[in-house]
Amino acid sequence: MAKVVLGYAPTRRNLFSAPEAVRYADLTRQRLRELGVEFVDIEDIASDGLLHDDNDRMRIAEKFKRAKVDGLFFPHGNFGTEYEVARLAKELNVPVLLWGPRDESPDENGVRARDSQCGLFATGKVLRRFRIPFTYLCNCRLEDEIFAKGIRNFLAVCNVVKTFRSTRILQIGPRPFDFWSTMCNEGELLERFGIQLSPVPLPELTEEMDRAVEQGTAVRETVAYCKEHFRIAIKEQELEKVAALKVAMRNLAGRYGCNAIAIQCWNALQNEIGIMPCAANSLLNEEGLPVVCETDIHGAITALLVEAAGMDEARSFFADWTVRHPDNENGELLQHCGPWPLSVAACQPVIGYPLAFSHPGAVEAVAKGGEMSLCRFDGDNGEYSLLLGNARGIQGPYTKGTYVWVEVKNWKKLEAKLVEGPYIHHCVGIHKDVVPVLYEACKYLGIRADLYDDNEDEVKSRVCGA
Length: 466
Prior knowledge:
This protein is of the alpha/beta class. The protein has 2 domains: 5-104 and 111-165, Rossmann fold, CATH 3.40.50.10940; 174-464, L-fucose Isomerase, Chain A, domain 3 (Alpha-Beta Barrel), CATH 3.20.14. Helices cover 41% and strands 21% of the residues. The chain has helices at 18-34, 54-67, 82-92, 116-129, 145-165, 186-193, 202-215, 217-229, 236-255, 268-273, 278-286, 297-309, 411-420, 435-445, 456-464, and strands at residues 5-8, 38-40, 71-75, 96-99, 135-136, 168-172, 196-200, 231-232, 260-263, 291-292, 316-324, 331-336, 350-352, 362-366, 371-380, 383-394, 402-407, 426-430, 448-451. Strands 11-12-17-16-15-18 form a 6-stranded antiparallel β-barrel. β6 (168-172), α6 and β7 (196-200) form a beta-alpha-beta unit.
């Protein structure tokens, strides 16, 4: 599971009860520990363990920077000091979570001790003035399930943002000539999002494969793994090339500090190494290093976002939208030559030959059904968005490669989005509902969330617990 660290900065305002604010800050600390949340506290800086003093705020900022916190959590123990929250959030530039506990009834004298909810309204407005995106967790009690879900969702949002901001993609070869749809603007990705590409030519890949074969151990281990987990329908020397390719790509990704790979995959690659890269891609995808086909840089970004939203607990699969289901009006075939990870398969996969190509080295297996999320990061003409929504696996005819038939809420509406753009025929799926997390993360990434199910109110409620 991914590691996410929060900066914990509970806040108060002097007009309301300081002891109550301290009490709720301590109760919240205890609840976070019960939920297994890792956080950096401010008790060693603020005398009462609360954010409300500007001198404390500056020292807190330095501590959080040193700790490299991935997000900020501002529980409002009473009304809170909204401008200190905004100043700290502006300086840290990480996702922000606002929450306050349900207020008790006024006492017998009509006095209210905290007014936490009222303070949240003020803080939200000031954060907007500072142009700081933030996440709001519905005003609730610490014991409510809404609180636990909201914290878990926010941790996943932080993981998405952290991953996106540190993305570097190994680009193996240029895009295939015929795939104009997968072209991307490398300069714009760097300038707008800080996303880096590390291009390497095919000869560098083949040289690394030769080194892997010479060193031997990693290749032999990979061959043994394949024989244990796959049915092998290719020759022994071809399987060794699959293993060498897998080891070479892993080595190159490490050398260039990359967290995903986009590979040319056809046709020059097959002529150079004599195999399809699909099975090698599958092996790396299973290890949590996303590899996508046809040098689809935007596809690699999508895979990273999806797995980060799932807290790295499930593997994603890179697919083509291909053909309509023969009987289900909202059914569609998701398929690719064979790069899907082992854990996605509903049966023992085969390493054999792909559809439409004569070279060996593709995986064949039907994927598990069930509920899943389908996503696509893409853009053109300077505008970027994330298409996302839910689907479920259904029965359908056999086809070659790695595949699954899915049903969506309204296929015709989704089809229009795919044709009209900025999307293409590629998507990334995961057997997990990550739609609310990715929807919320988009506000921090500076891209538009595009829900193909047209259910924004429902998704928002799942984010904040409203």
